[in-house]
Amino acid sequence: MKGVVLVGGEGTRLRPLTLHLPKPVVPIVNRPFLERMVRWMSGYGVREIILALGYLPDKIRERLGDGGALGVNLAYSVEEAPLGTAGAVKHAAGYLTDTCFVFNGDILTDLDLAAMLAAHRRAQAVVSIALTPVDDPTQYGVVEFDAEGRVQRFVEKPRPDEVRSHYINAGTYLIEPAVLERVPAGQYWMFERQLFPELVAAGERVFAFPTDAYWIDIGTPEKYRQVHADLLAGRLGDHLGNPHGDGLWAGDGCQIDPSATLIGPVALGDRVRIGPGAVVSGPTVIGADSVIGANAHVAESILWERVQVGEGAIVSECIIANDCRVECQAYRAILGARVVVEPGNRLDRGIRVWPERVIPRDTLRFG
Ligand code: GDD
Ligand code: MG
Questions:
Q1: 2 noted as active-site residue
Q2: Closest CA to 41 of 112, 97, 91
Q3: CATH number at residue 260
Q4: Shared-domain flag, residues 136 and 164
Q5: Using CA atoms, how far apart are residues 262 and 282, in angstroms rounded to an integer?
Q6: Does residue 101 sit in the same domain as residue 214?
Q7: In angstroms, what is the span from residue 218 Cα to ligand 2's centroid?
Q8: What is the pLDDT of residues 342-359, one digit of tens each?
């Protein structure tokens, strides 16, 4: 079966992490996000996967190639300028001949795709939309549906007074390709603001598929940290590395000094080194080839690859991109790639440091 994954967004809310790396390949517990998504889809037989994208396509191709390593066929449909969610699928229409899935490319979920397909067929729907309940629907597409599950109304980013359902569009659709005839070729067109409301208004069979499956949109730093905590708590049963008991997973070739303390859940990538007296407490992920210096403390943080935490440094509630060197106290900081923070600094309050910045000795202090 075929699936189109929409990965055209720039991931602005995750900057500076997404300045050099598009959101779909941002690591989630040491693996590119899309790799986890592809494993989920292929588990349900969705193995012909079309990535619809524009932003940094080569970075995605570099990491995922033709999908062979994941047991799927990946095709790339590249937009010169963003075409919107529906425009992007229209652009890929040449690949689509039959009922197919469409996925927002920033959602991690364990939704049962087989059950969704069965419901779509039973309802003889032209579009089915997976839904999830949330407390505040105003940041999402809110969906009202009747007792049979037929969609009555779809309002993207409603005003608070427009909210009449707590079920929102969960970003997984089944569509019959015929609906794409309503989407003008080469124009910016949205499922959420144009095609879905239009289909509903035309009386077409648009159905809701509400579930309480695990569901998270990884688009903000808070959600990005949440998804790590959830995975490390076993919420998705995903592969986290070789299990070592007590909430510890490690890749190959790790060196942990016997005097270091690890309090799980902690997942280490390949060849991570942890020095004498260091303390690592979870939920924490440390990417491949990273080095935690002697007596350093790392807590509740996500470190990407080749990160160096200096001797005696403190890293707490941080997200640190590839190749950073941190020799200071960092609380709630987000560092882009290749940032260097020298000793005598204290980062705090969600500070975001742009890639390649060097913060010299004794420059920054908070409160
Ligand atoms: N190829 C392509 N081209 N992809 C796009 C484009 C485009 O022009 N615009 C957006 N996308 C992709 C994004 O990369 C993302 O994976 C997905 O489409 C949704 O776009 P977001 O920018 O993340 O939208 P959102 O999070 O504000 O809202 C969407 O997701 C919510 C669930 O998280 C909507 O679909 C809402 O209705 C939904 O509730
Ligand atoms: Mg989103």
A1: no
A2: 112
A3: 2.160.10.10
A4: yes
A5: 8
A6: yes
A7: 7
A8: 999 999 999 999 999 999
